[in-house]
Amino acid sequence: MFIARLHKFLTATVDEKSRSRTIFWLTLSLTFAAVYAILGLKQVFSAEYMVQDDARQHVFWMMRFVDPELFPNDFIANYFQSVAPAGYSTLYKLAATVGIHPLFFHKILPLFLGLISTYYCFGLCLEMLPVPMTGFIASLLLNQHMWMTDDLASTTPRAFIYPIFLAFLYYLSRSSLLPCLGAIALIGLFYPPYALVAAGILVLRLLCWKNGGLRLSGDRTNYLFCTTGLGVIFLVMLPYALDKSEFGPTYTAAEAKQMGEFAPDGRNAFFRPNPKDYWLTGRGSGMFPKSLFTPVTHCVALLFPLLLFLRSAFPLANQIQSKIWLLLQLFLASSAMFFAAHAIIFKLYNPGRYTAYSLRFIVVLITAIALTLIIDGVCHWASKTETKFTLKNQVALMTTAIIAVSVVLYPCLVEKFPTVGYIEGKMPALYKFFEQQPKDILIASIAADTDHLPTFSQRSVLVAKEYAVPFHKGYYSRYRQRVRDLIRAQYTPDRAVLQNFINSYGVDFWMLNRNSLTLQYLEDYDWLDQFDSTEEARLSFKQGKIPALASAITSCAVFQNEVVVVLDASCIVK
To answer: pTM for this one?
Structure first.
């Protein structure tokens, strides 16, 4: 009797009488989403100088919304502002207009994105299997994944793909035209690559399998969604197509293969000699993200075909709706874009981005449905007996309990949850020093800590490893030349070369690691290996030559701590 009641509570389908049950499971889903987000907030607000790793690229320039005088004529800031999707930058600008600082906004935004994603994931799952518990499992697995990877916490454009694309799939499955078109527009405004995936789905819905072959759909609704949806996609993508940015074009495949940045050991490794790595699992180039089965409970999705084959033992499988074919359409559309992006490398951005999120959505939903079918199957099997408590009942209870514990308590098994890539700045005095300097200063440095200065000090840097993004030729060719010139000037024994560099670039401050003017520093700093001037500097050291900059460390220092020394560039010139 207990098993029967438990079975009904867990796997009852949605109907008019079960509205309260649906609200219960949805509320529980949102509660877990909020708890995970609060754990993330606790982490990001645990120190004054804390920021998400990738936000250092995409958010720092938005401080111009607060103070337009920041980053004047900043080459790096101008580039990242130019590549920011219109909706993304507009949202931050609106927040700044009402007094919300971009750095604060980027910290709290994951809470809201997570809640919205949870709502649409829950609703989409119910469209495929109308069991509220299944929606809870799907949303819980999605939240665990989002807080075990850095996409959501980054609040970069890719963070918005979760709530917006799930909204698109949800409204499409419900045939809600206007909300669906709104979601399509938002995809194009926040994460343009996935507008092309949405277009593929709309086109695929014009086809159906009938009489053993593909036929054109007879459903006029599909044609309405396709024509209007493609129209919206055309309108939102047109500005990107017409954009004549000073930082374009992208590197061709032939050019990229000659660059160390894209080599297997490069910072943006893409071209890998092993075909398996290149096509399947390689970051950027591979179809399947390595985090696809994160958390590992996602592996249950692999059992889904078997559960369907044995549907007589898992009767709830008969309640799966035909809308589940939307997942196949999503996979096909994403795969098509994946191969298209490979065909014209970098013009459509990284190929792997087209399948990474699609596969995660598919695996989350299929895993939730598979776990529900398993719970239903064992409870159905156990309820066939008329006795109150038998071995069957124990098996059913244990199976249900194991699934519940594995799904709900999985984060407790993770060493650091959430693991989302927050970076803490360890030199507050340094950041405050630069923040007190004029807004138009330029800082030259190859030190790793330079990555933090635009974010924490709101001051321009000549180069920094974090901003070495080698996709657009107009940007990276100039950026790479800056790095070469900086390395050459830092290690040259010729004072005239050093002075000419400072005057040419208008450098105001030079920041050095205390051990940076040594051969060992050059040998250990892997990022510098891809620049030819590094080898020149090594050769100079081996010949016993001393960098001209060394003589200025004592006389021109204006700030120093145990790690870095900041020199006044005007003093170096004199």
So the answer is: 0.93
